Amino acid sequence: MDASSCKNLQRLCLYLFVGYALIIQAVAAEKEVPGTRFGESVGALTLNFHYCYSCGYQKAFDGYVNILRTKFPQIRIQGSNYQPPVINYQLAKLAFLIKIVSIAWVLWSSGLFTIVNTPIRWNRQQATKLYACVMIFFLGNAIEGHLIMTGAFEISLNDMPIWSKLQARRMPSPQELMQIIHNQLQFCDQPGNPNFVK
């Protein structure tokens, strides 16, 4: 393979990678985790779960729904993604941009250090471009993922918080959650209680 065909192959790989990354970024920006609703009865109590989707808490939510639907069929259950703070979201987008620019820089650059001495690390990186690109990609993904993970699993009944993983630093056991809901339902059923909306 001569030098010009190698350069063309590098450019083609770069264009494909940048195009793929931009498409993924656009799809991710448009795609929001849909709210999930179970038991759509009007006027019923609503149990809201706000969980960290990127932490994999969707399965935990589904497990709680299966347990709670058998015990409390009258409660409407909703689940949605707990959004990260705006600054973390913006920093994750910046990390994505830096990742793409770094990969493009490694693939496209060859003679950046013609005037000054070339650093040894730069020579090594140019010798193993594929390895450098893969490492930048995975390191960038790790940073992005860390920035958008909230670790949240917040539960509220009729917009009144009943459990916060951010405060308790653990998930509730199914028995704990059922006891809390049972206590709230007893509180709700007390005559003359104007503080709880049915």
From TrEMBL:
Pfam families (UniProt xref): Rdx
Transmembrane region(s): 12-29, 94-118, 130-153
Entries under InterPro entries matching the protein: Selenoprotein_Rdx-typ (IPR011893), Selenoprotein_T (IPR019389), Thioredoxin-like_sf (IPR036249)
Domain of life: Eukaryota
An example Gene Ontology molecular-function term: thioredoxin-disulfide reductase (NADPH) activity
Alphabetic keyword roster: Membrane, Redox-active center, Signal, Transmembrane, Transmembrane helix
Gene Ontology biological process terms from the UniProt entry: cell redox homeostasis
One GO term describing the cellular component: endoplasmic reticulum membrane
Keyword Transmembrane helix (UniProt): yes
Protein name listed in UniProt: Thioredoxin reductase-like selenoprotein T homolog CG3887
Organism the protein comes from: Drosophila lebanonensis
Organism lineage: Eukaryota, Metazoa, Ecdysozoa, Arthropoda, Hexapoda
Gene that specifies this protein: LOC115626682
